[in-house]
Amino acid sequence: MAVGLQHVGLILAVVSWCLQSSCTSSKVWKTRSQAESVTTSQWQFEGLWMSCAATSLGSVQCSKFKTVLGLPAHLQACRALMILSLLLGLASIIVSVLGLKCTKIGRTSDHAKGAITLSGGIMFILSGVFTLTAVSWYAARVISEFYDPLHGGVRFELGTGLYLGWAASCLAVVGGLMLCCSYRKPPPTPASRHFSYNYSKTSQGQSIYRAAPVSDSSSSKAYV
Fold first, then answer.
1. pLDDT over 90 (residue 163)
2. Backbone angles phi, psi at 212, to 5 degrees
3. Phi/psi of residue 81, each to 5°?
4. d(CA 24, CA 82)
5. pTM for this one?
6. Could you state, in order of their start, the residue ranges of all structural domains in the chain?
7. What is the CATH number assigned to the segment(s) 2-181?
């Protein structure tokens, strides 16, 4: 059961990392609303790194954002969150593979490997939370500007990149939870019984040895 949870959780987590990569590099985090467009032969869309315009003839022109400090604060934060998510997800994949029961690493015990898998699952969950925070924050900003009557700029709608991010975050959280659930705490080992021997002599010259367990002094026995 634990092995199956590890394998399925790792597969989901790897798929989520691939979706996170596609989401980060996507150019369609938001698209220009067609409700206010005079013509439908032109489209405008933006991602985290560039803004693009396309025509019905198939030509696409993209321009990268030429400044970093001049970008909106939420866009810079989303960039940082997605990069952290990718780095954390990659580290999680490596850690989780090392913690699989079918992976042999020297003389590592099953308990130690279970702890490694648990760490990988927690890292996957954090990676999914970072992605979910980034895409939800960006989507909230797009929706807020769309319904703002005082917004004088171009109105945008949600793009496919955001849906990729939501799917990736869900898979990362589910995969991380499955990896965490595969961890089983080892049963407690019974305490070893230690005996102390006391040597004494009686008046008749007999030697007496008394043995008493340290854990239970009331059940001591004497042997003559």
1. yes
2. -135, 130
3. -65, -40
4. 6
5. 0.76
6. 2-181, 194-224
7. 1.20.140.150
